[in-house]
């Protein structure tokens, strides 16, 4: 009996020591044995497949290669899964990954509903969540987490860049075609605020059910309002169908502008320039922006199966690259042991990558970089495949994002 | 008061026209469904997928072979119809004697598989398909609205196609054989008609109708793997309201419900995707066999 209790105590003490030892910043011996696992969780089969999907995974692999982390003795493995745009499916996969498969980092996660679920789980398990394709500002607002970095874009920055900029060019009366669910309402509300703040008016709005096929009726109502701009507060195939039918009805030909609140270059590709020309949209990355973005695109292009990287994919690349730099700095074992500490270190280190240039991560998890307003080229202006955007305006990193004071993130002490 | 009325009319009239355009698609699709159900007693859930394949075949013909819209309008239905023949011969023909539920399950499974294959091959955000030269260009001014030429063509094509189908089934000898075979296959076979082959061709014809609608839809909607599934549920409601298997019923209700939906989009847009199902519930309560069905 006594013997038993002693061995029990001994093993208990030994167990208690393990995490303590792992937490030590021992860069020598322990590091050689570390292996990290990155899980890319996104839509592999539905409406967001092109803007996330396998292309995100390829970009994550590129980041691992570019980071040269293998030479530093840390072995990184990538797994991927399809959350089917369902929060419960995503949550189940995330729990399995972390509890059973030993995943340390979850990357990407389009669809704000799923993103928020993952945000909670990763925090509970003290791992790392690098969000790129989820758009909700909640992630850096009330639900902000010490384990999350929100990299690429959010609804606030889209609304500010597209809404604010267009009013400045004289497009001061708006009509919204809005997807009738939280994301659409959010985008419409945010954009309306910027339009009105810049001295513009909102003449009306019409809310359509998600995944509608025919938008001609809404476009007609928008035209009857005589607004100068039709704002599309929807996403994916809804947006594509809207734009396609607006071109068909000659909406833009008669001088009305169309502002797409959320569009990725892959959507432009699927529309074709004939239908998409003249559209205005916001992205924080474009493959043909500068020498560095072109260099990145050339490196990764071969593994994308004909697709091109959008800002969402670039965000997966850049966030993983920065994470791996932090791992190299902290030591693999330490990074594996404590997700929150790793994210804190990521925030302390300035970021620099080919996609977004130099930047920083704010206390609330918001990654800061410049934001670009693009206009889609006319077919005759396009010089080759995927030559789609011309730059209209750049919003500097300091102005583009929601100020910390407005986000109500509990991590930030006032 | 009168000004108010005129304003409402100005707002409503264009929506009536647009409603007719959408109704044209409902009519064409529900027509194919009605033909297949009426003659074969199979609820063809793969109809949406076949509609989608029609649009994709048009895209492939254009981008891989260089065949334009007009030939595709005939070729795509033939190709997809041939595919329908294979489906019917190998699988669906085995279900005629079983409960409807089996046909529904099989075709639903087929729809999922076909959609999945296209998603793997072509991604999900869709492909561009431009309207033909003849029908592009500036929209026609109807006085109260601008209507793209292509949409006018869609309505015309749908009306002609629906009429032709109705005439073939109700007024020709072939149609008479078909209807007779539905009533009593053994007897018709005894008169020397090859009933199994007729069934195969009927299924192929229904499928070809879906593909025809798919080609018509390609320049308007995004050509993507889920384009059929978003339409097919509504189309089933149309068929149920019209009366299962009734050709005339499905065409008339197709256009009618397109209209109702169009008007809902002006007066209460949030309900536009639900209104058809509300009508379906009411019709089923009042007339379980549908508006034009025989109980």
From TrEMBL, chain A:
Domain of life: Bacteria
Span of domain Leucine-binding protein: 36-377
Family the entry assigns: Belongs to the leucine-binding protein family.
Family matches, as InterPro entries: BCAA_transport, Leu-bd, Peripla_BP_I, TAT_signal
Signal peptide (residue range): 1-22
Record flagged with keyword Signal: yes
Species: Teichococcus vastitatis
Name the UniProt record assigns to this protein: ABC transporter substrate-binding protein
Keyword tags: Amino-acid transport, Signal, Transport
From TrEMBL, chain B:
Residue ranges crossing the lipid bilayer per the database entry: 12-35, 42-62, 68-87, 99-118, 150-169, 201-221, 233-260, 266-286
Principal subcellular localisation of the protein: membrane
Cell location: Cell membrane
Membrane topology: Multi-pass membrane protein
InterPro entries: ABC_transp_permease, BCAA_transport_permease
Protein name: Branched-chain amino acid ABC transporter permease
One Pfam family in the UniProt entry: BPD_transp_2
Family note: Belongs to the binding-protein-dependent transport system permease family. LivHM subfamily.
Alphabetized UniProt keyword annotations: Amino-acid transport, Cell membrane, Membrane, Transmembrane, Transmembrane helix, Transport
């Amino acid at each position: 009996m006594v013997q038993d209790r002693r061995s029990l105590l001994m093993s208990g003490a030994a167990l208690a020591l393990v995490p303590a030892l792992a937490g030590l910043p021992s860069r020598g011996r322990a590091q050689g044995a570390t292996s990290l696992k990155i899980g890319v969780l996104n839509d592999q089969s539905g409406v967001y497949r092109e803007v996330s999907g396998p292309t995100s995974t390829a970009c994550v692999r590129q980041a691992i290669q570019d980071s040269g982390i293998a030479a530093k003795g840390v072995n990184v493995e990538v797994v991927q899964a399809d959350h089917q745009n369902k929060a419960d499916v995503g949550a189940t996969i995330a729990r399995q990954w972390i509890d059973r498969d030993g995943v340390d980092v979850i990357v990407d996660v389009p669809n704000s509903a799923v993103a928020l679920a993952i945000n909670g789980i990763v925090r509970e398990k003290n791992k790392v969540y690098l969000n790129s394709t989820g758009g909700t500002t909640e992630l850096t607002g009330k639900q902000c987490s010490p384990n999350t970095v929100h990299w690429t874009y959010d609804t606030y920055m889209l609304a500010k860049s597209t809404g604010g900029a267009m009013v400045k060019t004289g497009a001061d009366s708006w009509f919204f075609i809005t997807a009738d669910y939280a994301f659409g309402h959010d985008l419409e509300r945010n954009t309306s605020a910027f339009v009105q703040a810049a001295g513009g008016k909102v003449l009306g709005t019409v809310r359509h059910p998600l995944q509608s096929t025919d938008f001609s009726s809404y476009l007609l109502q928008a035209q009857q309002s005589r607004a100068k701009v039709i704002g599309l507060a929807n996403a994916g195939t809804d947006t594509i169908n809207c734009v396609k039918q607006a071109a068909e009805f000659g909406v833009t030909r008669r001088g009305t502008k169309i502002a797409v609140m959320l569009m990725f270059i892959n959507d432009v590709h699927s529309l074709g320039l004939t239908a998409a020309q003249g559209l205005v949209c916001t992205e924080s990355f474009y493959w043909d922006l500068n020498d560095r973005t072109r260099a990145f695109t050339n490196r990764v292009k071969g593994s994308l199966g004909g697709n091109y990287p959008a800002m969402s994919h670039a965000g997966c690349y850049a966030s993983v690259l920065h994470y791996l730099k932090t791992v190299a700095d902290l030591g693999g074992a330490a990074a594996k042991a404590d997700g929150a500490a790793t994210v804190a270190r990521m925030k302390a280190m300035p970021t620099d990558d080919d996609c977004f240039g130099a930047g920083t991560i704010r206390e609330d998890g918001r990654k800061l970089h410049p934001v670009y307003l693009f206009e889609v080229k006319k077919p005759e202006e396009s010089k080759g495949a995927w030559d789609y955007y011309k730059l209209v305006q750049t919003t500097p990193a300091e102005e583009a994002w929601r100020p910390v004071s407005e986000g109500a993130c509990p991590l930030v002490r006032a | 008061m009168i000004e108010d009325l005129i304003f409402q009319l100005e707002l409503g009239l264009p929506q009536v026209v647009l409603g007719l355009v959408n109704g044209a698609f409902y009519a064409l699709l529900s027509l194919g469904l009605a033909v297949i159900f009426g003659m074969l007693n199979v609820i063809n859930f793969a109809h949406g997928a076949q509609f989608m394949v029609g649009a994709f075949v048009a895209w492939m013909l254009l981008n891989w072979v260089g065949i334009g819209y007009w030939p595709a309008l005939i070729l795509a239905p033939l190709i997809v119809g041939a595919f329908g023949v294979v489906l019917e011969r190998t699988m669906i023909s085995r279900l005629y004697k079983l409960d409807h539920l089996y046909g529904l399950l099989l075709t639903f499974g087929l729809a999922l598989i076909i959609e999945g294959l296209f998603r793997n091959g072509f991604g999900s955000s869709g492909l561009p398909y431009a309207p033909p030269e003849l029908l592009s260009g500036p929209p026609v001014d109807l006085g109260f609205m601008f209507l793209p030429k292509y949409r006018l063509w869609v309505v015309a094509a749908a009306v002609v196609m629906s009429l032709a189908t109705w005439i073939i089934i109700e007024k020709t000898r072939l149609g008479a054989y078909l209807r007779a075979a539905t009533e009593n296959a053994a007897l018709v076979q005894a008169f020397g008609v090859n009933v199994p082959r007729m069934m195969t061709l009927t299924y192929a014809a229904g499928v070809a109708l879906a593909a025809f609608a798919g080609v018509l839809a390609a320049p308007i909607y995004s050509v993507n793997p889920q384009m059929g599934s978003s339409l097919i549920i509504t189309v089933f409601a149309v068929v149920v309201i019209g009366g299962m298997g009734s050709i005339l019923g499905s065409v008339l209700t197709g256009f009618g419900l397109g209209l109702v939906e169009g008007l809902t989009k002006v007066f209460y847009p949030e309900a536009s995707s639900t209104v058809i199902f509300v009508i379906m519930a009411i019709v089923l309560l009042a007339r379980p066999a549908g508006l034009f069905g025989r109980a």
